[in-house]
Specification:
alpha/beta; 4-stranded parallel β-sheet; 3-stranded antiparallel β-sheet; 10 helices; 16% strand
Length: 288
């Protein structure tokens, strides 16, 4: 099944941006922590290395997005918190993975994906994260599947920087909603609710608490991410996602790289997640 017209347009825009980068031009692009080809509301943790490596990675992801084909109809309220897609069909490299399914993701609910290896769980998460089906922009989506980029920034600063970015987006959304000719009171109240939940005054304390739960000592929290192993940078990436608390959080095997203590803490933390959570895991105990 060929990609939809809207997806073809997004892929063409990605290719144009990639060509501009290779030609040395400067343009406004998606942040380093976003999924290439997705909207700015869909951050993705990934390694940001030398420019040549970034270019190759971006091209590889573009190829994956091109090989993935999804179709469906968003039938939920465009201004609402729930996500419902009818007639959802997904294929990858010509192999049909899902056909004519109904996808219902309700705010405040947690979902576990079950299936054999190769059945398309990760591909489904990527399809949702990259908005193959046009999910309303006020719904921010976060897919954790890569390490935090190595840099001179320590773990706490790395997390807090992302939280401040979300606060700025929420404040802009509140401003836009407030000056609209027809004010959407429900959407405005939800935005204020989310901003209050972020609570900038507690950023450092909250970031430290999450990192501690994932096994970080105080000394490790102060260490630059460039001095951490890949496994610990994965924990930083996971901590950032938990801290930012997106509308839709997608976790693909989050217990990888975690020791037992961190797994137990994460299980307890996610049991209280009150937005939308979709998770895959090989651990039946964790899913339960």
């Amino acid at each position: 099944m060929p990609p939809s017209a809207s997806k073809q347009k997004r892929l063409a825009e990605k290719a144009a941006k990639q060509s501009a980068k290779q030609n040395g031009t400067t343009s406004t692009s998606t942040p380093n922590d976003s999924v290439p080809g997705s909207m700015s509301h869909t951050p993705l943790t990934s390694i940001s290395a030398a420019n040549s490596t970034d270019d190759l990675t971006s091209m590889a992801k573009l190829q994956i997005a091109t090989d993935r084909s999804a179709a469906g109809v968003l039938v939920s309220d465009a201004k609402g918190r729930d996500i419902k897609i009818d007639s959802y069909t997904l294929s990858f490299h010509g192999r049909l993975l899902i056909e004519g399914a109904e996808i219902s993701l309700n705010y405040g609910q947690r979902y576990g994906l079950l299936g054999e290896n190769g059945s398309g769980k990760s591909t489904f998460l990527q399809s949702i994260a990259e908005r193959d089906i046009e999910i309303p922009p006020h719904i921010d989506i976060y897919l954790v599947r890569g390490e935090a980029e190595p840099s001179d920034v320590n773990a706490v600063e790395f997390i807090v920087a992302s939280a401040r970015e979300k606060v700025a987006k929420l404040e802009k959304r509140i401003e836009d909603l407030s000056i609209a000719d027809d004010v959407d009171d429900a959407a405005l109240e939800a935005a204020y609710e989310e901003l209050e939940e972020m609570d900038p005054n507690t950023f450092e304390t909250k970031a430290g608490s999450i990192l501690h739960g994932l096994g970080f000592s105080q000394a490790m929290m102060a260490r630059p991410t460039k001095d951490m192993s890949g496994g610990w940078r994965m924990r930083v990436a996971l901590a950032r996602a938990l801290f930012v608390k997106p509308h839709l959080l997608l976790l693909d095997e989050p217990t990888n790289h975690l020791d037992l203590g961190a797994v137990v803490w994460l299980e307890a933390y996610l049991s209280t997640y009150n937005h939308i959570l979709v998770i895959t895991s090989h651990s039946q105990d964790f899913m339960d």
